[in-house]
Amino acid sequence: MSDRPSPYDCFTVADLLVDYADQVLLPEQAARVTAHLSQCPSCREQVNQLREVSYRLEAVEPAVPGPGLRTHFLQLLEEEKAALAAAPAARVRPLWPREATHWALRIAAGVALLLTGVALGHWGRPNPAAAVATSPAPAPTRHAVRLAAALSGEAAQRLSASDRIQLVSNAAAAAEATDAPGDPVIQALINTLNFDSNVNVRLAAAGALYRLRADPRVGEAFTQSLSIQTDPNVQILLIELLVNMRERRAAAQFEQLAQKPDALPMVRQQAEYGLGTLL
After folding, report:
1. Could you give the C-alpha distances from 171 to 68, 79, 138, 208, in angstroms and in order?
2. 56 φ, ψ to 5°?
3. Phi first, then psi: what are they for 7, rounded to 5°?
4. Model-level pTM?
5. Where are the domains of the chain?
6. Separation in Å, CA 122 to CA 11, 125, 214, 248
7. What whole-number distance in Å separates Cα of residue 98 and Cα of residue 92?
8. What is its subcellular localisation (predicted)?
9. How sure is the predictor about 95, in pLDDT bands with cuts at 50, 70 and 90?
10. C-alpha distance from residue 40 to each of 6, 34, 50, 196, 223 (Å)
């Protein structure tokens, strides 16, 4: 019989590999992973790749995006708000019968959610912000701060899209573990959602932020981001996430997108559906 571990053995340690590569596991967990790696070439290769990404990030001095980037983004938002305020009030009317398109829209949104690893079952998770504080608020860990800086720095853009997606996942996991107010990971993920050049990375950032939606910055960020996103996959995902969060501030953006002539019909219909759900 082969001594090579079974797929189930690999599954049981999969969630520990990132922390093992960063050397932050408890001793007994680290010993368990070490024993597994001695018999599993596939998991060893994953750990080596994770360490290589970490080394490449640490070799470059992290850089913070310049103030001009944020100024430009805020200027775009103000222009969108001004255009919306000047537009006459109008009630959105369906472009196609709702029954004919509803399921297609839900399937498209579901595919986008699956691509980012978002489980809508998380919606039932208790909101940490609603709990009574019994101890001082936690501070972001050094690990989370380092990941946020790496995600915001120029070095991140020199990584492949798959490496940036892994960095997004690691940063979100670090922020989720501490749940610290003002965690810099949130702003780093928001910047990634708005400005990363790769659609899949932006989808991953949206999914990561949804996991951290207890932070009040997330709902506002989704609403503002919807006004500058042009890829239909990202637009549909943001609409779905805002609806699940019951983010009523997004209603104006939904109505504007539903009437936008250059938006895809499916995006306009999804925006109309979201508007009807929120109102």
Report:
1. 25, 32, 17, 9
2. -65, -35
3. -55, -35
4. 0.55
5. 7-58, 80-278
6. 22, 5, 11, 20
7. 13
8. Membrane
9. very low
10. 9, 10, 16, 35, 45
